[in-house]
Amino acid sequence: QVQLVESGGGLVQPGGSLRLSCAASGSIVSDYTMAWYRQAPGKSRELVAVATTGGSTNYADSVKGRFTISRDNAKNTAYLQMNSLKFEDTAVYYCNAARLWLGLPYNYWGQGTQVTVSS
């Protein structure tokens, strides 16, 4: 069973930075599309950033230029570097690993890590 464990969340002031990590059990980071989602109180979960196995990345408009997704296949870990944080970035951030293999979808989630932006 694949497990994803997020870390790195916390309390940060507006304009500050955090780096989230997503450690995966097994060698899945290299074979899966890795993504970060977030869910703020009272809102639905939204896609923040995605990194494909081919190396391409994509971001929500709200975080473009501020957040960077990356992956270290050797460490089986994905990262989300968050700079210039805003109040509206406050949410629980979830790591996701997904792929389609032999026609079957494989989709895994971490437990989430809280990010709070507050002065």
Could you characterize the architecture of this molecule?
The model has no long low-confidence stretch (mean pLDDT 95). The protein is an all-beta fold and 119 residues long. It has strands spanning 4-7, 10-12, 18-24, 33-39, 46-51, 57-59, 67-72, 77-82, 91-101, 104-109, 113-117. Strands 2, 4, 5, 6, 9, 10 and 11 form a seven-stranded mixed β-sheet that branches. The chain has a four-stranded antiparallel β-sheet with strand order 1-3-8-7, with no helix packed on it. The chain is 0% helix and 54% strand. The protein is globular, with a radius of gyration of 14 Å.
Question: What is the topological layout?
Answer:
Blueprint lengths: L3 E4 L2 E3 L5 E7 L8 E7 L6 E6 L5 E3 L7 E6 L4 E6 L8 E11 L2 E6 L3 E5 L2
Parallel strand pairs: 2-11
Antiparallel strand pairs: 1-3, 3-8, 4-5, 4-9, 5-6, 7-8, 9-10, 9-11
